[in-house]
Amino acid sequence: MKILILKDVGGVGQHGTVKEVKDGYALNFLIPRGLAVQATPEKVAAHAKQAEENAKKADAANKDMVEKLHNLNGRRVVVRAPANKQGHLFKGINKKAVADELSNLGAAILPDTITGLEDAIKEVGEYVIHVVDAGVDAAITIAVEAAN
């Protein structure tokens, strides 16, 4: 029986491939568990069309991210946090806080894409970080100011 694999199955194939397997294996294991469907021309065509649409959406999202990173490159972003008189922050600013601040500017940045900030920022000052995503490296200056 020809099947269209919906999820990666070890020893059988990867998502989106059409394979020939024994009828019992397909009917009793793969199809009931939602790992595959019987490969009809309509289902194969629908799956190919869906994969093409997903690729177009991913490409558009990638172009959008590249544009946003180019806009952020070289910018100075001010982050305010409570600090004492000596400039020590009461709470460190980590990658997640920086990513949230950049998201407020319109760029949905994941904390994992931020480099140059291995430890949390614990003092008032200016720090240069890099956001590497979609093949673009954007250097951003984070200015930490006391919010007292």
UniProtKB/TrEMBL annotation:
PROSITE patterns on file: RIBOSOMAL_L9 (PS00651)
InterPro entries reported for this sequence: Ribosomal_bL9, Ribosomal_bL9/RNase_H1_N, Ribosomal_bL9_bac/chp, Ribosomal_bL9_C, Ribosomal_bL9_C_sf, Ribosomal_bL9_N, Ribosomal_bL9_N_sf
Keyword terms: Ribonucleoprotein, Ribosomal protein, RNA-binding, rRNA-binding
Ribosomal protein L9 domain location: 13-40
TM helices/strands, residue ranges: none
Pfam families the UniProt entry points to: Ribosomal_L9_C, Ribosomal_L9_N
GO biological process per UniProt: translation
One GO location term (cellular component): ribosome
Similarity annotation: Belongs to the bacterial ribosomal protein bL9 family.
Functional summary from the UniProt entry: Binds to the 23S rRNA.
UniProt protein name: Large ribosomal subunit protein bL9
Gene coding for it: rplI
